[in-house]
Structures are given as C-alpha cells and as structure tokens.
Amino acid sequence: MKENNISRRTFLKIFGAGTAATVAATTIGCSENEKTSAANQEPPKGKMTYRTNHNTGDKVSILGYGMMRLPVVGQKGDRQKGDEEVDQDMVNRQVDYALEHGLNYFDTSPVYTQGLSERHTGIALKRHPRKNYYIATKMSNFRDYSFSNSVEMFNNSLKELQTDYIDYYLLHSIGGSNDDLDALELFNARFIDNGLLKWLQQKKKDGKIRNLGFSYHGDIEVFDHALDMHDKGEVHWDFVQIELNYLDWLHASEINDSNTNAEYLYAELKKRNIPAVIMEPLLGGRLANMPNKIVKELKKRAPERSIASWAFRYAGTHDGVLCVLSGMTYMEHLRDNLLSYCPLEPLSKDEMAFLEGDIATQIVDYKTIPCNDCKYCMPCPYGIDIPGIFVHYNKCLNESHVPRSTEDPDYAEARRAFLIGYDRSVPRMRQSDHCIGCGKCVPACPQRIRIPREMRKISQYVEQLKQNKFEEEE
User: Fold this and answer.
1) How far is residue 182 from each of residues 8, 146, 185, 267, measured CA to CA in Å?
2) Structurally, how many domains does the chain consist of?
C-alpha cells in the first residue's frame, strides 16, 4: 500500500509536534557501556511477570516488544534515510527468544520501518501458534484519512501480519495537528467525520478487533475529549497507550510547557479502570545513558542492575500498567529488559520517590538537549548531522567535558576532549556552523526541540572553545 511508504519526516510532521509514538517502540534496553554485562547474563525462563486485562482476560507479559527499529543487515543502506535492509533472520531469532522467555505482546504499525514492520513481524510470528502471542497495531491514517484508505490500511495490516484478527488495535497518535487542522479537528477528521470509529467498533463486534484503544501524543484537549467519549458511552476504550517514565511523571511540563505530566495521564486512566500500555519508559534511551554522577548514585543502590532497569521497574511498578513497550533492536537489549521483568521486582515507595524527586530533578538541572537520537529530523537538506551533534554535546555534558570558562580546573582536558571528539564523530561539513536556520527539521522533532536555535548555540560554543574566549552566557 503506497501510504505505507510515508517518510520519517512526513510521518512525524503529520503526527503532530508532540508525538513520541514510536517512540513507544524506539526505547532501547541498556546503555552502550552495559551491553557486555547484559549479553553475559541469561534471563530465566518461566519467570515473566504478567498482568491481566480485565476486559478480555488476556494474560499479558509486562514487557512488550516494540517492532519499529528492527535489526538490519550489516551496514547496507543509507542510515540517514533509514532504508537499511531488515535482517529477517535476526528478527526471527529475537522473536523466538522473546517468546521462549514469556514475552507475548508485539507492537507494530503500518508506518514503522519504512512501512515494512508489519510484514517482518508477521513473518516472524507466523512460525508460532497464534494463541501464544498478542498483536498490537494501529490505524496510522495520517496522510489520507478518507474512509476507503483507512479501511484498506486495516485490511492490509491483517494481510501483512498474516492473521485474521488484531488483539490490540489503536487509533494512532491522537493529539497531533497538521498544517490545516488543529488537534481536535484532526482527530475528528481522521476518526469521527468519516465514520471510521463506528466502523472499527463494528469490527470489534465482528471479532476482527479484540481490544480497541488509542495512543496519545500532543494536545491534552484531545486526550480529555477521548476519555469524555468513553464516559458518555460513545466508545469503550479497552486500553490506552501513554508516555510514562520517572522524568515525565512530574517534569514533562517543566521540560516543555506544551507537554503533560505522566502523573495526570495515568491518574485519568486509573480512575476509569482503563489499562495503560506504556511507551517511552527510557525516553528513547536518555534514561539509560546518563551523567556519570547519576550513574554512580544508581549503581550505589543496586550495583548488579543496569541503569535502564531502574526505568523499566519504575514503569512496571504502577499497578494500572498492562504492558511496558521497548524497541529492542539488539539481543543484548532484549536480554537486559527480560532480566528486569523475569520477574518484576516492584520498586519500594522510597525508591519511587528517589527516582521521581532526586534523580529526575538532577536530570532536568543538567540541561541536556532532549534529543533521543530518533533521526526523524533527518535527512537535513543542507547535510547537517543534527542528531550526531546533539549526541556528542550531551555525551560531553554527561562526562563533564563541556567547560564554560577558561578558569575551570579541567578546562584544557575538557576542551581537547570536546573538540577532538566533535571532529571524530561529526564530519566538518556536517557540523552545526553549516546550519542556515531553515527550520525544516523542527516539525519532525517529537521532543519539540528548537533545532536551529540549538545549532546556533553549539556553533557559538565551539567557536569560543577554539578561540579560548568565553562571553557571558545569556
């Protein structure tokens, strides 16, 4: 279906500025410096923690597999454009391993992996009895929300996934807007005015959909409106997918005033007894790759656990959570996340408060650029390696290699580390000083980063380092 070939840039633009959707499925499982330890630990079989969906009685694994960032073959394809060749053999191996360890929830979409995720997921899962797993996919009708195209998309999902029914079907990314419609208008255009929601409700009665829900990103008015529809009996939401982690719990609106704290989203679902599926438990890996000072604090409390495990245990400790999604590209991610949930050891009240308060506050104070390295802003029409620049800056900030004054005790060492590392990780012609500020990348960013402004600030900072001259910060 041609709509499946939507580009990452267009996908996120249509998604709305607040999406982290896929983000649901882009979460990684362990930081780079933990890959070796995770790879050497074998999670136990038969120990997975399950939650029961009271709507259908489904016994769902607390860990769900996000099928957006699938493993690729070698270095084939242009990684900036995202057209790598998916390694189906590795997808099969990882799906087999996940099922062997009790994971039974697989989340995909018609637009993931350049429109091929459902196909690769279907191939891997078809090799197993259908009763052994639950499939979640989405109505991703962002570009063409006509009734006919939406119905075609649904039917194509069944075909690609090689199944007769969908266990968990979502209205994908409600709350976004586009160039023509505000968030509520777009919600109505995609699902209400065209009669699609009523059609999906009939599909549920027919058994083609077992659970109907939505994923939310963006305008809180649409989230509240959808729940109001539930309250009035216009639709019954069997589950809802939200972003929840210990940073967003109380600080999402502080980081960006257009975001909503996860505490509110979770509470609204909890009081209606609507099961929550969680995306972004690691914020695209940011809660696994953190400043050394914070890493030391977490390791002091639990030296045997990965940094990522804190975030996964946090998300799973909430009793209204049905499943926590993780986009596990590599086997070491899968192993580490299985270790967190086979079985889940819930955090204590003290540990929850420690993460929500002390650790989250420190992360906010570090003022790293909230880039998840999702690459939705790419390719830049002028060749700038936007995520590469942000990743290097944040890495140096986490390692205290971002000096702000020539008077800093470790200025010379930090200056050298930043500049040499910058040239090694980002080619000169793709560095921040070549950004012309066109702003074409901004609508694609799920974290709403003002990319041209940050590029300008980093360019100025690099020049100050080169000249050994710092001016007063704004």
Assistant:
1) 21, 18, 5, 26
2) 2
